[in-house]
Amino acid sequence: MGSALPFKPHWNLAKCCAHPSTTNPALSSLYSVVSMATPSSKGPITHVIFDMDGLLLDTEKFYTEVQEIILARYNKTFDWSLKAKMMGKKAIEAARVFVEETGLSDSLSAEAFLEEREEMLRHMFPASELMPGASRLIRHLHAKEVPIALATGSHRRHFELKTQKHGELFSLMHHVVLGDDPEVKQGKPSPDIFLAAAKRFEDGPVDPHKALVFEDAPSGVLAAKNAKMSVVMVPDPRLDSSYHDTADQVLSSLLDFNPQQWGLPPFEDA
Ligand SMILES: O=P(O)(O)OC[C@@H](O)CO
Ligand SMILES: [Mg+2]
């Protein structure tokens, strides 16, 4: 499905020496910054846009589990190279990737796959838990009056099930853009969702160079870059590290984010 990534990145990723962890390997584990391009060339960040699945909520494991179950029926195994191509996308787009990449399209349609997946997922999503550092970062930015928004490939029904236990935290977002929003014509890696999110802040369209996106998925990182935004990637460690190269900064956890590096107010507990 290589052709499903129509947007070619065209920015320069100068690996930076500004952050101590990039020059001193001993500090690297301390900071848990996997890699970093210089944020200084981007100008200070004024607005933040969060992805949801796999970044704020530990929901990617549900998709993985269900897809493993479905594939086992065909004596096939689900792996992280397929996962990398599906994650972050709208449901139907991910479903097409699944049936094509597994060679099942003749026996299983994308629609039938979705129906079967849905039946299992709807029982799992209400148990969704927050990822480490998600609550701390959202609450910090909100308290410091940094405008924050959510941009998730999830459609409304899934969004509601996943956030059932976390309504108060998600209400801190200035706005939420979902995968089934009419303005999101194409899912990630198209920039549609991030451009829609940037438009809906109170003070009108935000200059993309002043927007920082947090993402876990390769398609989401590309979508942010296609929208000309800066992006911090917090990938699952099982994802191939070649997917890190497109991000401006790669962290092991949201807990390792240093707002000051991006011109954002520092944590008071740091
Ligand atoms: O955009 P996010 O929030 O990762 O959601 C996509 C999703 O439906 C699962 O991969
Ligand atoms: Mg995600």
Automatic annotation (TrEMBL):
<dbReference type="GO" id="GO:0043136">
    <property type="term" value="F:sn-glycerol 3-phosphatase activity"/>
</dbReference>
<dbReference type="GO" id="GO:0006114">
    <property type="term" value="P:glycerol biosynthetic process"/>
</dbReference>
<dbReference type="Pfam" id="PF00702">
    <property type="entry name" value="Hydrolase"/>
</dbReference>
<dbReference type="InterPro" id="IPR045228">
    <property type="entry name" value="Gpp1/Gpp2-like"/>
</dbReference>
<dbReference type="InterPro" id="IPR023214">
    <property type="entry name" value="HAD_sf"/>
</dbReference>
<protein>
    <recommendedName>
        <fullName>glycerol-1-phosphatase</fullName>
        <ecNumber>3.1.3.21</ecNumber>
    </recommendedName>
</protein>
<dbReference type="InterPro" id="IPR006439">
    <property type="entry name" value="HAD-SF_hydro_IA"/>
</dbReference>
<dbReference type="GO" id="GO:0046872">
    <property type="term" value="F:metal ion binding"/>
</dbReference>
<keyword id="KW-0460">Magnesium</keyword>
<comment type="similarity">
    <text>Belongs to the HAD-like hydrolase superfamily. DOG/GPP family.</text>
</comment>
<dbReference type="InterPro" id="IPR023198">
    <property type="entry name" value="PGP-like_dom2"/>
</dbReference>
<dbReference type="InterPro" id="IPR036412">
    <property type="entry name" value="HAD-like_sf"/>
</dbReference>
<keyword id="KW-0378">Hydrolase</keyword>
<keyword id="KW-0479">Metal-binding</keyword>
